Amino acid sequence: MSPLDAKAPPVLKGQDGDGSVQVHQDMSVKIDGAKVFAVYGKGGIGKSTTSSNLSVAFSKLGKRVLQIGCDPKHDSTFTLTGRLVPTVIDTLKDVDFHAEELRPEDFVYEGFNGVQCVEAGGPPAGTGCGGYVVGQTVKLLKQHHMLEDTDVVIFDVLGDVVCGGFAAPLQHADRALVVTANDFDSIYAMNRIIAAVQAKAKNYNVRLAGCVANRSKDTDEVDRYCDTVGFKRLAHLPDLDAIRRSRLKKKTLFAMDPDEDIIAVQKEYIRLAETLWAGTDPQAPSALEDRHIFELLGFD
Amino acid sequence: MKLTVWTYEGPPHVGAMRVATGMKDLHFVLHAPQGDTYADLLFTMIERRGHRPPVTYTTFQARDLGSDTADLFKATCQDAYDRFKPQALIVAASCTAELIQDDPGGLAQSMGLPVPVIPLELPSYQRKEAFGTSETFLQLVRHLAGPVERTPEVTCNILGPTGLGFRHRDDVAEIEKLLLGMGIGINVIGPMGSSPADIARLGAAHFNVMLYPESAEPACRHLERAFGQPYTKCVPLGVGATRDFIKEVAELADMSQPSLESPDLRLPWWSRSVDSTYLTGKRVFVFGDATHAMAAARVARDEMGFEVVGMGCYNREFARPMRALAKDYGLEALITDDYLEVERAIEALQPEMILGTQMERHIGKRLGIPCAVISAPVHVQDFPARYSPQMGWEGANVLFDTWIHPLVMGLEEHLLHMFREDFEFHDAAGPSHHGGHTPASEIKVDVPEMTVTEDGLSWAVDAEKELRKIPFFVRGKARRNTEKFASEKGLSTISIDTLYEAKAHYAR
Hints:
The structure holds two protein chains of two kinds. Chain A is of the alpha/beta class. Chain A has eleven helices and eight strands. Helices cover 39% and strands 13% of the residues of chain A. An eight-stranded mixed beta sheet of chain A has the order 3-4-2-5-1-6-7-8, with helices on both faces. By secondary structure, chain B is α/β, with parallel strands linked by helices. Chain B is built from 21 helices and 15 strands. In chain B, helix 16 (358-367) links the parallel strand 11 and strand 12. In chain B, helix 1 (12-22) crosses helix 6 (129-144) and helix 6 (129-144) runs parallel beside helix 9 (213-227). The model of chain B is unreliable at 436-440 (pLDDT under 50). Chains A and B meet through loops of A and helix 6 of B.
């Protein structure tokens, strides 16, 4: 046996899903200092809206915030900057992937209330890997020391659980936050996300923080699910027309003319930010098997 | 990665050494095997420094790899501290030591030394020397510079000079003189000449002068964010750039109407007063670090009347401004760190002069093209004993002198005529300054065959023979001009008459 054999990394086959081989991240891309949150949820549930408003809420608490949009759709920071900013991948393409030619202002844009905005972008549909894109983005931010001058990093992740773009932010995050609504499809998706994050938590530091009931009048179904699996609801955002309008106006809720409803929602985001900043106990829910979740919530 | 014989830049730890060597009371502990100590020679032999760089190497050997190299590193750190008692310590791993993953930063910080210990992350296999320089200076500034009160009078820091820098010693003196002349005080000059205690009070200045963006841009950006200090973007290389620099400084210092002239400035008159056929329209190729190459292109075109036929840089960090400038000149910038690619470009363009680095001087020698050095990397002869800045007013004068010298003197129309049959100007004679002339009798003029160009133009044998009488350093130009003239006239054969008609045509 050569000396190298003894040092070979353990093959943790299957521990984060059938047939996968765990590859540990390079220590040089570890994010030190900042608190890192990853926001997950079913497609179209309002992850970007939640992330952007949460970013502003953190900035209102006096924190230096960096939001990283990890969806190829690259509209995560849209309401913060008021425009679709160029993505990291587009910018890298312009310089033929010679990252050393870039300066921070080429890929980091300042949004509402000083929130720093980055859109990772994505590979063309059907090709490439979203995880690679997120990895390159973090590497670039790290090289330019952008993460050292930041208190909070928010990854706004795409909805697709099987994509590498889903898994990559988990390597960097401290806490994962799930956005859901009070309906079967969203809760079903949350259940899948919980299973996926729990699998990653075996090898990474990431832990589940809890869920946000978004765009819902009631929270009874969400709460019933949470009680069953041992999960926690951290916030509740009602189905307000103002939230929809804020997106159309390319603004976060904090930039809208304040009325009673809007002020209430702003307070809820601030409360969520305070809760997350103070630190949440790691949750260890056990995801339900499909059969059980159908039984629990019914089919309607 | 590519294997290469020569490189423009060393690994990033050499950049860190350049910062440390320029400074006082700072010590650098480098986790490195025995062979890496060669870097000392750059400073003692090339730059002729009177002392060794303040670097202690762990110099691990093959047998150490069997035991504990981490302990070796800690012991080396302690010894270095005890012996040199520096105000601060920087630690890093060289390219070879990076592979054994000892984490020198973590080890040194856990030792509890009574001075600041600054760990450097130098990714040896991705980045190079200039990155090492700028990253080291940035980390020193980040760790040491704290909030301090601004000086009551307007002062600035001069940032960027390092050890082994091309004319940094004299540039700093020249720019310091210029700024003091404008009534602006100097707070700190660094990294070269400063101590960690000086770095700590950088914040007292009202603004920063970014003298060398290659080593100071990240630090300047950090200081702008941290202390609200703006910084100059124009580098005062050449007359126009020096004037722009003065205007920029005046704006930052809130001064009106600064003087844009100096009685010491001679470049403009000198370049106007030389024979116009000697300078004007000379085709030059410019290559170096981006800052020096971009400035040299401006001086060459706007202040010397040369024609810039190619330009580029080896440092990718500044490739974008380089490309943008090249576009202004109607050129495509050559961005490469492969000297063979640069050689091919020069060979294809056949310029009459190269403004480049030590590498281009070698290329010029091989190709028989004169070369003046404008940028690092440089040779021992580019660290002169005399005062010889590149920046400011005196720098402009120096540029004129150094760029003119490599061009063969006396290259004026009437002299070409008088001496065109002269044995000394013959191909086989060799350069006169090498002494060993071939006796006139031994020179055999080989009678050329009739040559045909790519465009189907053919040179008559006697015309070709006549062309050979023109000295080699202008022959290429004469050939090109004549061919252009002939094709414009729709001629298919170039005779002696065509050659002289073309000459008359272009003389008009």
